[in-house]
Amino acid sequence: MQISASILSADVADLAAVAADLRQAGVDMLHFDVMDGQFVPNITFGMPVLAALDRHSDLFMDVHLMIEDPEKYAVQFVEAGADLVTFHVESRSDIAETIRLIHEAGAKAGIVLKPDTPWETAIPYLDSVEVVLVMTVEPGFGGQSFMREMMKKVEALCSYAEAHHLTYQIEVDGGINGETSQEAIRAGAELLVIGSYLFRQEDKRAAMTAIREQADTIAHV
Questions:
Q1: I need a labelling partner for 24 at 20 to 30 A (CA). Which of 39, 55, 84, 92 fits?
Q2: What average pLDDT does this structure show over 3-23?
């Protein structure tokens, strides 16, 4: 089980220091939310911020594109430092072509499902992606409450992978904390995006260690 720290909840005035602190705390990757003010009603980071952050950190960059046209910009984000690019199936882009472009640029590719999007929408692309990201909040803003009903979607994607011998990881993003992380792990999530909960902790390493220990316990039940 891996943890991707969402810097949407961080002090953006000093992201280099934030990244260093998170690396010291033991996170597996940084979750970089890109919002264009059209696909979602918020605007966040772009390629220059990612490139600057990447120059100051060797952490894996997990870039989540919440934009109308990911096909147009995905390669630029890879060139700026993205190691994984996830984008929404609800966007206007050609999904298969966007996946191809991301892979061709040298990064892993993933697709994202909003809460109202049926998991079956992802089926045509599941054999060509490394990650499927299930949103457990409405995309656009941090600090929202976890939607427990989304765990059925995670379970379905997990069962589909097992039945069809596929190897994609299931990522969960939204409202993850010490309690909801256990629900996501039990449902089959292998990658947890943690934002506001993590940044509220005085001892981030201890908080993540507790979540990982819970994951180990669940795995051996």
A1: 84
A2: 93
